[in-house]
Design brief:
Layout (H helix, E strand, L loop, with lengths): L3 H15 L4 E4 L14 H29 L2 E7 L1 H4 L5 H21 L5 E7 L5 H7 L5 H10 L10 H12 L10 E4 L43 H10 L7 H9 L2
Parallel strand pairs: 1-2, 2-3, 3-4
Helix pairs in contact: 1-2, 2-4, 8-9
Length: 255
């Protein structure tokens, strides 16, 4: 898949065999461990070739067929693009690119009736995962440790469950779904704190700052440790310069 000519040949072979192409599933890739310190520019670019550029190649060559039948594309991606992992700079970047292509292609191809979606995979027990686990002294213990951190069922996602999600996204049942990344993932117990949006300028310890519907919230967390009463005084002090003082007062009063 790192050879563009081979990608073209694969699409042409499918076209000859089936006479048409109704859907494309981009799935090939490998976490090759090219990190910032452990890798180098040449390995980084090769990893992108292994994990990203063939997604574009396959979609490009299959596009005329997909437009003709108003088909669908599904990109398999990894949660590493969102969470990070450490030591996987190229793989994380490639999956970020896969996610971006889902949204970009969905926007470009909507007028042609071609739907584009993604499936974001977390811990899925595959032969490649088993091969990685085998590099540890006790592979079974490594798997049990990973599964112990998965709240739902204390097990990994199966390939069959991923395939079922892909089949749904390719089928007419999801005929009005595009530009979406279906996350087949879980939250570990020690998950990162929920990002709070900044209040005017309430502290993050205020109970209402933990609600996404709080009317005082803007975009980023507050770091000044002020209280809600301080926020009200802050708002009151700005009434003279506020273009809509009544609205500002009512927004903070509900805090």
């Amino acid at each position: 898949m790192t050879d563009t000519a081979q990608c073209r040949a694969a699409v042409e072979a499918a076209r000859r065999h089936f006479d048409r192409i109704d859907g494309l599933v981009n799935n090939a890739g490998v976490n090759d461990g090219c990190g910032l310190a452990s890798g180098d520019p040449e390995r980084f670019m090769l990893s992108l070739r292994r994990n990203l550029t063939h997604y574009y190649d396959m979609a490009h060559f299959a596009l005329p067929d997909l437009k003709a039948v108003r088909g669908a594309i599904v990109n398999i991606t990894s949660k590493v693009a969102e969470t990070g992992q450490g030591g996987t700079s190229a793989y994380a970047a490639a999956n970020g690119g896969r996610n971006a292509l889902v949204r970009e292609w969905a926007a470009e191809l909507a007028e042609n009736g071609v739907r584009v979606n993604g499936v974001v995979v977390a811990e899925c027990w595959t032969p490649m995962y088993a091969q990685w686990a085998a590099t540890f002294p006790d592979p079974d213990a490594k798997r049990r440790h990973a599964e112990s951190r998965i709240p739902l069922g204390r097990r990994m996602t199966t390939p069959e469950e991923i395939a079922a999600t892909v089949a749904f996204l390719l089928s007419p049942v999801s005929g009005h779904t595009t530009g979406q990344a279906a996350a087949r993932r879980w939250r570990v117990h020690a998950s990162r704190p929920r990002p709070y949006r900044r209040m005017n300028p309430c502290c993050a310890s205020c109970p209402c700052s933990r609600s996404w519907s709080c009317p005082c919230m803007l975009k980023t967390p507050s770091r000044n440790g002020a209280s809600c009463s301080t926020a009200r005084r802050w708002t009151a002090g700005r009434r003279a310069t506020s273009p809509t003082p009544a609205r500002r007062t009512s927004r903070t009063a509900r805090c």
